[in-house]
């Protein structure tokens, strides 16, 4: 009897909840899906009615509905029916403005701007289209300045193209900022939908808790600058899984910002963030497939990345400290990475893995990168792996286990190869000529490399040098390294270490040390 009663109560409450779910069709509020009419007010009225009545589904039916800025609210499920397109207006006047204060100028918010809300879902079989192509000069490429190229190997010819625009990026016009903003929200889900053509960052979660992004396709124009896929800033308890993301800028960025220049959505709050999972995703980017950190005011901890494919990207995985926030307890497992050199003004230079901790603000004490594990990684790249600490911030406890790295020749070596890119820092220079080992590590404490297999594939350039090179280090161990120096450089070594202490390796030949205790 108790079992039957429990079953009845469960069915009753399930039926009651189902019965109470209400649907608010935006056509009932005046929306016209002709691809021309501005439906901002109609969609906002539907959202407001849904929220006022305790929540439910806001339905985007078949058609093309054009909007400016709309605010989602607590307990609202935005559902896009098959054949539905929610498109951003091509007119900036249809978007709300935001002013971060001096020295910045006002900017425009994007399509969906949600603050201080809970239990929000966006899902369905339809598409959200940022209409980004309208906001770029697509026949022009953004060029590097002469101050950027001054110290490169190629000088003024660095990343030069003779005709058309090469790898871009497009020159941006005035444009709306993030397509989606969820700021200080809890329990947010975005799943299954197709998202295209963001004119700026696509999906931004700021100071949120309990976020799930699952099964989406996010396809931005690969030549669009700042068109990140997903940006997670100072959030906790985030899962990103089963997604296909193609973006001009970083495909997924996990950072600890509490503000960031003129960009809307930040709360200026200082708090730690973390507990983030990225799994089973396919990523492509003309910047980093996965970026962790940059000018972080807040520290970020406990990030776990697994079963991810990063293809045709300028950087594979990038971890950056430029401000007071630290980055720690990060694992990467079962990752495939493919990287290439680019023309044009993109950050990165073909590194499959890049970790750097160098000053970005002279007035703050730098945070630190520590406790990072790379396990079961397959890399194919046109530049080496870079681990670049500094005397202000040593990298600490960085481990590589079971790594397969094919360093391949590039058709762009003559115009882009043989350089290190640390832009986004206050170093002068931050983009400069350098020899390229397959792995270079400096200012690092506690480096562990085991079962690392390296192959140089048709590399022609003499700037490729050592297999692994260490400089200014403490406590480094390299075991079971199967590789060699670059075949193009007879003076190079399989392993070269200098200016360090506590160095161990089980390699018996091709090893050179200088000033190592």
TrEMBL record:
<keyword id="KW-0326">Glycosidase</keyword>
<dbReference type="InterPro" id="IPR006626">
    <property type="entry name" value="PbH1"/>
</dbReference>
<dbReference type="Pfam" id="PF00295">
    <property type="entry name" value="Glyco_hydro_28"/>
</dbReference>
<comment type="similarity">
    <text>Belongs to the glycosyl hydrolase 28 family.</text>
</comment>
<dbReference type="GO" id="GO:0004650">
    <property type="term" value="F:polygalacturonase activity"/>
</dbReference>
<protein>
    <recommendedName>
        <fullName>Polygalacturonase</fullName>
    </recommendedName>
</protein>
<feature type="signal peptide">
    <location>
        <begin position="1"/>
        <end position="19"/>
    </location>
</feature>
<dbReference type="InterPro" id="IPR051801">
    <property type="entry name" value="GH28_Enzymes"/>
</dbReference>
<dbReference type="InterPro" id="IPR000743">
    <property type="entry name" value="Glyco_hydro_28"/>
</dbReference>
<keyword id="KW-0378">Hydrolase</keyword>
<keyword id="KW-0732">Signal</keyword>
<dbReference type="GO" id="GO:0005975">
    <property type="term" value="P:carbohydrate metabolic process"/>
</dbReference>
<dbReference type="InterPro" id="IPR011050">
    <property type="entry name" value="Pectin_lyase_fold/virulence"/>
</dbReference>
<dbReference type="InterPro" id="IPR012334">
    <property type="entry name" value="Pectin_lyas_fold"/>
</dbReference>
